[in-house]
Amino acid sequence: MSEYRFTDGNLLILYGIYAGRTTDGSLPDYVKERVKVGLETYGLIMGSRPDKHKTMVIVVGEQDPADKIKEELVRGGVDEKIIAIDSDSKDVAQTVQRIYEMIEKKPNPPFVYFVGSVWNHEVLNSVILSKMKGYRVQFYGALDHRPVAEVEQEKLLDQPKRGAEYYKQKAKNKAVDVLLNIIFPD
Fold first, then answer.
1. Burial track 18-32 (b if 16+ CB lie within 10 A, e otherwise)
2. Each residue's pLDDT tens digit, 76-113
3. Are 50 and 96 in contact (CB under 8 A)?
4. Do residues 73 and 14 lie in contact, with contact meaning Cβ atoms separated by under 8 Å?
5. Are 86 and 58 in contact (CB under 8 A)?
6. Each residue of 124-152: pLDDT tens digit?
């Protein structure tokens, strides 16, 4: 039997929080990449999920950039009625907490798709291990072509909090690695 709950519907989270600002007020290229991946994910949901009519998109970010992201999504074919903006969350942990509060009471929570930059995966995993265990969450990472120093600076703003669940998972992974090395020596 699966450890996950039966899902009913889809929730696409497009993480639009970023530290830098552009001079002309447009979205940075790395955020446009997230929008592109978000549109591709939306297309996959619409093309393959039987519960596609129960899909919602949440754009996370400050109000002005989130409105621009919403415009891009609408131009890409997403129905404006299913797009919501979360301008209260300030990082991945707060975003996951708000999503958890939204879906925890549902008997059949939606399948959650999280779209962010590839480096958001580490932060998301640490938060999901503690908060969203048992829920179906899929991460899609967009490429981030900024210099490493700039990405590292932004990563510091969203440092993962490592609780007991993180270390338990790390120990399990280490045990599996040791076992596989014993079974399949080089």
1. beeeeeeeebbebbe
2. 999 999 999 998 988 888 888 899 988 888 888 899 99
3. no
4. yes
5. yes
6. 777 776 777 778 888 898 888 888 877 77
Model confidence pLDDT, tens digit, residues 146-181: 888 777 777 766 665 566 666 777 888 888 888 888
Full 3-state SS string of the chain: CCCCCCCCCEEEEEECCCCCCCCCCCCCHHHHHHHHHHHHHHHHHHHHCCCHHHEEEEEECCHHHHHHHHHHHHHCCCCHHHEEEECCCCCHHHHHHHHHHHHCCCCCCCEEEEEEECCHHHHHHHHHHHHCCCCCEEEEEECCCCCHHHHHHHHHHCCCCCCHHHHHHHHHHHHHHHHHHHHCCC
Whole-number Å distance between alpha carbons of 45 and 57? 11
**Tokens in use for 152?**
């590292």
Round the CA-based radius of gyration of the chain to a whole number and report it. Answer: 18
List domains and CATH numbers for the chain. Answer: 10-161 (3.40.50)
Would you state the structure tokens that stand for residue 154, as one six-digit string?
């932004």
Amino acid at 120: N
Whether 34 contacts 115, CB under 8 Å: yes
pTM for this predicted structure: 0.77
